[in-house]
TrEMBL record:
Domain of life: Bacteria
Residue ranges of every copy of the NADPH-dependent FMN reductase-like domain listed in the record: 7-148
Protein name as catalogued: Multimeric flavodoxin WrbA
One matching Pfam family: FMN_red
Native source species: Streptomyces umbrinus
Amino acid sequence: MRALSLVCTLNSSPAPSSSLLLSDQISAELDKLGVPTETVRVADHDVRPGIGVDMGEGDAWPMLREKVHQADILVIATPIWLGHPSSICQRVLERLNAESSQTDEQGRPLLYDKVAAVAVVGNEDGAHKVSADVFQALNDVGFSLAPGAVTYWVGEAQQGTDYKDLDGTPEAVADTTHTLAVNTVHLAKLLKEHPYPAG
């Protein structure tokens, strides 16, 4: 079992990132369950716009796509911007949309039997709306989602504190992150042992 976390902060490395911090906390929980996680900050790569598997020379998506296919669990971590997932998150979802036409030898979508989870951070409300958007897109392309497949933190309205600037992790966030990891790994193991049937 292995996981991949695609961190969709708008900031390239090495800038601090609240999305990366929450992703790292999920990875720590997954590691306790024996599931190593590779983390990729998507802004560090030239992922071209489009809904193709490969958008031509210089497109970094084919490399990231291979990592998605090698993983049993995909974590998408995104900030909230203007009430929506980040533009980078949207681009990742659009590129994943190409998988809808890709099938295995049994005619099943290639992303069947893979499990996804979501992390959301922001300074105001909107985590439920953003997770709903990302959940729907992930499910549309073939991922399964366990109960409690999102962890999030949002600050109070009209203030500017970021998750990465907190003195510590709020207990509620830590508990939710733990539940996400346990349920996601449980579902991924079930699907590994009992894949979905061919249509």
